[in-house]
Amino acid sequence: MNYLNWREIDGYGCPVNIIETNRGYGKSYGWKKKCVKMVRRGGKFVYVVRRPQNWKDITDKKLQIFSDVNRDLGENIETKKAGFFRGDEQVGYIVELSKAQSVKPASFADVQMVIFDEFLIENNSPERYLPQEPVQLMNLFDTIARNRSDVKLYMLGNASVLYNPYVIFWNLRLPKKGRISISDNRRILLFIGVSEEFIQQRKETLAGELMQGTSYEAFALYNQFAFDNMLYLDKVPKGARYYVSIKAAVPLAVYTHGKYFYVSQNYEKNFPRVLVLPENVSDERETVARRSNFYVVLLKKLYLNGFVRYENVKVKELFIGFISAFL
What we know:
CATH architecture of the largest domain: 3-Layer(aba) Sandwich
Number of helices: 11
Number of strands: 15
Radius of gyration: 22 Å
């Protein structure tokens, strides 16, 4: 079966590599294989998790992250609470991004690779991004790399949301032709895609057969982003009334016209009604968005009943990311 071509990705020489594909395309297996080869040459790696609980969930269940690669390559890299070990030697460090400040005094001179696996959060997940998460990750990467140019960061996620906080923070362009887009400064690579050959191969597996005909098939097999479609896209009509602002990763404006509500980026900075998630409140004039809040209840009801329209796909994903916290 054909999998992710790591030579193609590494050939661009970008220190930061964001890789988003469908499930089963070899992202996780690929980075582990790269780590094994690097460890054999004397290098080490950092494995990033978002919160302490994420790592606790792994170690409490005694999961062995490298078990598949160990079997295939004849290695013995063990997953332990303190990190990853090859015999008595520690070859991989664990860093919890929410506590990254605590590792600033540390030296990572032997680290050549940083891995942030499953970095994307799907809209129906109870997990949430950290406040200013891209900034925190870049601070961590700076701590690890210092003034070196031989450290690479790989961020891997399943294709579910196009406009995640990292794409927005770095103002990355989505690939228009092919599967790769490079930032203007040539430092960040964004890979999105899957080959038709791989789709056919996956369809012939047991998992592929079980997915066929389900709503999950488009996401898992065809790499169609969960909310990347043309459904309910419409411009704000003339005469629409400004209703409420939403403080999301990008500020949003909600207008009302007839029986429909319209979400746009045409945001009025001084509008008095601003909904914001509790962890992002920064101004006393902002209204904390809670399940019982009148505007949240109304927008949730309108969304579930198909009465919300969106200026474009980006706005749609940002709004769904916000309202999904209350579904």
